[in-house]
Amino acid sequence: xxxxxxxxxxxxxxxETLDDACRFRLRGPVVTQGAKHGDSIAVNGVCLxxxxxxxxxxxADVMAETLNRSSLGALEAGSRVNLERPMAVGERLGGHIVxxxxxxxxxxxxxxxxxxxxxxxxxxxxxLTRYVVEKxxxxxxxxxxxxxxxxxxxxxxxxxxxTLDLTTLGHKQPGDPVNLEVDVIAKYVERMLGDRAQxxxx
Length: 202
Known about the structure:
The protein is mainly beta. The protein has 2 domains: 8-84, Elongation Factor Tu (Ef-tu), domain 3; 104-184, Elongation Factor Tu (Ef-tu), domain 3. The chain is 15% helix and 41% strand. The protein has 3 helices and 12 strands; from the N terminus they run βββββαββββββαβα. The strands form 2 sheets. Strands 1-2-5-4-3-6 form a 6-stranded antiparallel β-barrel. It has a 6-stranded antiparallel barrel with strand order 7-8-11-10-9-12. The longest helix is centred in the last third of the chain and has 18 residues, at 184-201. It is globular and about 45 Å long. The mean pLDDT is 91.
C-alpha cells in the first residue's frame, strides 16, 4: 500500500522492449536505499516489482496489461517519473490509501497558473466519474490530490509550488497522459450497497 506522497522525481534510464512486455531501468537514489529483489515501488502510480538493482538504479518488468491500461507505455529513456516506496507499518498516512492499481488514464486539458498555486484540469473516463467527488481524494500519476471541481468528464486539482517542483505535474502540458486511481473506499462502498440492494430485491 502507498500513500500518494511522492518521495522523489526519478528518471527512466533505459527501456528494453520484450515480446509482450518491456523492462524499465530507473534511477532513484532515495527509493533504492535498502531495495532488494521482489520489493514494490510505485512508478507514476503503478505498483511495480524490483527485478534487480545496482547503485541508485533498479529494473522492473511491465507486462502488456499494465502497458495497455496505464500511461507507462508512453515512457522512454529520459522520461521523469514519480517514485514512492510502500508505506511501512506504523508510519503516518500522509495522503490517502493508494493501491498502485491504475483505474484508467486521463489527459491534461488545461493549466491555469497563479502566484501561489496552479489549477490543472484533467479529463476523466466516464466510468470513473461516480467515484470522484468535490473535496474527495484521487491519485494522479501516483500523487495524492484533493479534487477541487468534479465535472461530467473532467476534474480539477489545485497544485502548490512543492508539488509542481517535486513531481511530474510540474512539467506535464496539455495533451500529456496521466495515470488515475480513484479512492478504493468508494469502490468498496459501491459494491457493498449494490450487494445489499440485490439481496433486498430477492
